[in-house]
Amino acid sequence: MLERGNLSIAGLAFEEARPEVRPVIGQNIRIARGARLLLDVEELIVSGSGVTVLMGPNGAGKSLLLRCLANLVAPDSGTITWGGCPPDRARAARLGFVFQRPVLLRRSARANIRHALRAAGVSRAEAAARADQALAAARLSHLSRMPARMLSGGEQQRLAIARALALRPECLFLDEPTANLDPASVAAIEATVIAAGRSGTKVLFVTHDAAQARRIATDILFMHEGQILERRDATSFFDVPKSAAARAFLAGDLVSEAGTDLDGAFGSGA
Amino acid sequence: MISDGRLKSAAIAIGVAMGLMNAPAAAGDFIVVQSTTSTQNSGLLDAILPLFTAKTGTEVRVVAVGTGQAIKNAANCDGDVLLVHAKDDEEAFVADGGGVERFDVMYNDFVIVGPDRDPAKIAGRDVEHALRMIAEAEAPFASRGDESGTHKKERTLWRDAGIDPAAASGAWYRETGSGMGATINIAVGMDAYALTDRATWIAHENKAGLRILVEGDDRLFNQYGMILVSPERCPTVKAEAGQALIDWLLGEGQAAIAAYRVAGQQLFFPNAAGSM
Amino acid sequence: MHDLTNAFAETFGLLVSLDADLLEIVGLSLWVSGLAVLIAGLIGVPLGALVAVARFPGRWAVVVLLNAMMGLPPVVVGLAVYLLLSRAGPLGPLGILYTPTAMVIAQAILVLPIVAALSRQTIEDMKLEYEDQLRVFGMGPRGMISTLIWDARYSLMTALLAGFGRAVAEVGAVIIVGGNINHVTRVMTTTIALETSKGNLAFAMALGLVLVTIVTAVNALVFSLRHTATRSAYA
User: Fold this and answer.
1) Complete domains list, chain C, with CATH
2) Across residues C160-170, what is the average pLDDT?
3) Measured between alpha carbons, how far is B186 from C151 in angstroms, rounded to an integer?
4) Secondary structure percentages of chain C, helix, strand, coil, to 5
5) Is the CB of C16 inside 8 Å of chain A's CB atoms?
6) Which pLDDT does position C233 carry in this prediction?
7) Whole-number Å distance between alpha carbons of C199 and B77
8) How large is the average pLDDT for residues B166-194?
9) What pLDDT, on a 0 to 100 scale, did the predictor assign at position B42?
10) ∠ at Cα C91 (C88, C95), nearest 5°?
11) pLDDT of C72-106, one tens digit each?
12) Cα C216 to Cα A126: distance, rounded to the nearest angstrom
C-alpha cells in the first residue's frame, strides 16, 4: 500500500516504486488436453519495459500463455511467480490485462475506470480524478457519462485499455486487442501501447498480425504448437527468422486464415 | 418454551423491530376471537361487534376457521375467546383446562339443501328418513369433511340414521374438506345434497338450483357456545376484555343477535341462560 | 357465464368507485407483499450472488435445494410460520400472530428461495462474462459479489418481480398467519377466498381482476424500467 501511495503522489514516476509483480516468471509451464500439448514453455521472464509481441499462428498457445502468466489459468504443471513470489490477489491490479473482447461493466465510461481504481484501494476522490485523467489521455472525455456498452467497438477497447492504464500497472498484457477493429482505432491503440512501453510499463502484446508486430514490437516471442521457438529483438527477427515455422508464418501472413491449416500440418509432424 | 432470558429479550427486540413495520395495523386494545366460518360468512359478527367496540373501545379481531381449528388455535393460546358450535368438544376443551367456562349464546338450525328436482325425494321428510333415502338413491351428497362443528353434526345424524357414509366416500358421498360456503358452491356445481347451517345458507349468494328440502327437525338444532380461553393456561390472554365481550354477548348483545336479519329473515336466535 | 359478465361490470364499478375498504385491502396487499419482497431481496440477492460466486463443497446441493424451494407450497410455509409464532411456539412471546408482520414474515420466507435462485442464475451468467476481468482487478469474492449485483441490477428486478407476483397472489400462507381479520390482516387474496366462500362469486372475481390489473401494472412499470436500461446497454 505504501508504494501505491508514493505512486499516486509521484504521478508518472512509478519506476521509483519497488516493483511488485516484475519480473513475471513462468517455469516449465505445461498444459495438455488429452494427448495434445497446448503449452510447453521451459522458461519465460517478463521484465523491464517496452513492448514484447507474442506472435504466432492461431492455436499456437499465445493467449493461453498470457493467461497463465496473469494467473487466470492454472497450468497442469510448472510455476508462475510475480516479483519472486507466487501470484496473489493483493498484487493482481499491478498486472493489467486487456481481453480481445473488452469486458466493460454496465456503468458509464467514467464509472468503469473509477470502479477498477476503487477496487484497487484508491480513495474515492483520487479515483475520480484519475478516471478523468485516464479518459482525457484516451481522448474519451466527451464520452465520460455514456454507458460504456453503448460505445463503438473501437471506443470500448480504448476505454478498456485506458482503464487498465489508470491502475498504473507494471505489466500490461493485451490479448489480440485490435482484432476486428477499424484502422483508426487500431492506430490509436498501437500508439497508446507504444507510449506505455516507453514510459516504463512492460507490455506483452499478443497478435497473429505480423504487420502489427512490426509496427509496435521492441522484441518478439514467436510461438508455435505451444512452444516458444524464437525470442529476439524485433528488427533481427523480421530480417532473418530462424525457425521454419516463423519463416512459413511470415511468408503466409498475407493469407491470414492460413494459420489454422499451418497449425494442423505442423501438429502432425511434431 | 423459551427459558433463556437472553433469547427472550432478543425475541422481544425483534418483535419491537417488527412492530415498526406494522404501520397499517390498528393501534389500541383488541382481543382475538377464534370463531367459525358460519358466524362470519353470515355477516353476524360484522354487524354486531362494532356495537361492542363502540361501547367499550375494545376492537374485536375475528379469526374465522372451522370449529376444530378454532379450538386447536385456542389451545395454542392464539386467541382470547372461542365462539363455536360443537358442544361436546367445547366441554372437553373446558374440562381439559383450556377454557374457563362454557356459555350458551345463541342457536340457529341446520337444514338439508339439495337440487330443486330432488332425485332422492327427501323434501319434507324427517332427517333420518331423508338421509336413508339419499344413501339408498346414492344421490351425491357434499360433506364438509373438515372436522368442523357442522361436519361433526352431520356425522352424528348419519350414525343415528344407521348409515356409514364413509364407505361411499368418493362415490356418492363427497368430502370437500372445505368451509361451509365452499361446500355449498361445490354442491351447486355437482347437483348434490348438503347439510348446512341456516345462517350461512340464507346469506349465501350462489344458491343456483338448490333449495331447502329438510328443515324444522329437532335434531337439526345448532347451539353456539362461548368460552374465555384460560388465563391460567395462557398468560397472554386478555381475560378482562375477553370476559367483557362474553358478558356483553350474553346480556345486551342478545337483542343485537335477534335483530340481525338477512333478506328479512332472522338467522340466529339468542338463548343465553339469563335472557331465556 | 352470468357471474363472469357480472364480474366485469363489478370490476369496473370497483375501480371507478375506489371504495375505501377496497383501497385499504389493496393497500395492505401491496404493503405486505412489497415489504416481504424487500426483505427477501435484501437476503436473497446477496445469498444468490454468494452461491454463484463462491466455490465450496456441496455447492451443487445448495443450488438444487434453492431451485426446489422455489416451489414451496404457501400453505406449508403458513403452517410452519404459524407454529413458530403461535403463543405455544418458540416465537410466541413476540405476540405477532394475526398481524401484518406475521404475513410479511411468511411471504418473505415463501419468496426468498425464488429471489435467491433466480439471482444466482442471473449472476452466474454474468459472472461467466466478468470473472476474468474482475480477477485482473484483484477483486476477491466480496468485491465480485457487489460488482455483479450492481451490474445485474436490472435483471435482478425480474427476480424480485417474480417474487412479488408470487407473494401478492398467494393465499395459503397469509390466511393462516394473518387470520383474514377485517381491517387488520385482510388482503386481496383472503378477501377473494372469503367472498367465494360466501357465494359472492361475481364480486370475488371482480376482486381477482383488480388483483390481476395491479400485478400487470407493476410488471409494466418494471418492464419499462428494464426497457430503458436495455436501450442504454445497462441490462
Assistant:
1) 21-201 (1.10.3720.10)
2) 94
3) 51
4) 80, 0, 20
5) no
6) 65
7) 32
8) 90
9) 87
10) 80
11) 999 999 999 999 999 889 999 999 999 999 999 99
12) 45
Is the pLDDT at B157 greater than 50? The verdict is: yes
Query: CA C220, C222, C224 angle in degrees (round to 5)?
Result: 70
Do domains B27-107+222-270 and B109-220 share one topology? The answer is yes
CATH for the B27-107+222-270 domain, from 3.40.190.10, 3.30.420.10, 3.40.50.20, 3.30.70.1290: 3.40.190.10
| Cα distances (angstroms) measured from residue C193 to each of A64, A253, C17, C106 | 62, 76, 22, 18
Q: With respect to CATH, is domain B109-220 assigned 3.50.50.60? A: no
Residue found under cell 445497462: C234
Distant-in-sequence, close-in-space partners of B249: CB < 8 Å, separation ≥ 6: B52, B105, B226, B257, B272
- Among B234, B273, B244, B262, residue whose Cα is nearest residue B39: B262
Read off the pLDDT band of A201 (50, 70, 90): very high
% of chain A surpassing 70 pLDDT:
86
Answer whether residue B265 shows pLDDT above 80: yes
Please, what's the b/e burial string for C24-49 (b: 16 or more CB within 10 A of its CB; e: otherwise)? Answer: ebbebbbbbbbbbbbbbbeebbbbbb
Q: What is the pLDDT of residue C2?
A: 66
Optimal mutation site among B78, B202, B207, B229, interface C, most CBs of chain C within 10 A: B78
Of A67, A56, A8, A25, whose CA–CA distance to A210 is shortest? A56
Note which residues in 172-231 of chain C have CB less than 8 A from chain A.
none
Respond yes or no on whether the N-terminal peptide bond of residue A23 is cis (omega within 30° of 0): yes
Terminal alpha carbon distance of chain A:
48
CA distance C41 to chain B (A): 16
> Is residue B227's pLDDT more than 90?
yes
Q: How far is B10 from chain C (nearest CA, A)?
A: 10
Domains and their CATH numbers in chain A: 23-105+172-269 (3.40.50.300)
Q: Which of C75, C181, C205 to mutate to test the interface with B (most CBs of B within 10 A)?
A: C181
Comparison of pLDDT for C60 and A251, the residue scoring more: C60
pLDDT at residue A45 tops 60:
yes
Average pLDDT, stretch A227-237? 94
pLDDT at position C162: 92
CA distance B33 to B80: 6
Q: How confident is the model at residue B2 (pLDDT cuts 50, 70, 90)?
A: very low
CA distance A214 to A147: 35
| Inter-chain touch B206–C200, beta carbons under 8 Å | yes
Per-residue model confidence as pLDDT tens digits over C7-56? 777 777 777 777 788 889 999 999 999 999 999 999 999 999 999 999 99
CA separation for the pair A20, B210 (Å, rounded): 88
Closest CA to B179 of C6, C193, A180, C61: C193
Which of these ranges, B68-82, C123-137, C191-205, has the smallest mean pLDDT?
A: C191-205
Pairing assessment for the beta strands B30-36 and B59-65 based on DSSP bridges: parallel
What are the b/e assignments for B25-51, b being 16+ CB within 10 Å? beeeebbbbbbbbbbbbbbbbebbbee
State the average pLDDT over residues B91-111.
95
Gyration radius of chain B over CA positions: 21
Nearest CB neighbour to B24, from listed C100, C105, C198: C100
Q: DSSP characters for A211-234?
A: HHHHHH-SEEEEEETTEEEEEEEH
Question: Which residues, in sequence order, are bridge partners of residue B99?
Answer: B229
User: Which alpha helices (H) appear in A97-182, and where do they start and end?
Assistant: 109-119, 124-137, 153-166
**C34 Cβ under 8 Å from any chain B Cβ:** no
Residue in A20, A63, A71, A106 to test binding to C, most C beta-carbons within 10 Å = A106
Whether the per-residue pLDDT at A161 is higher than 70: the answer is yes
What ranges do the domains of chain B cover?
27-107+222-270, 109-220
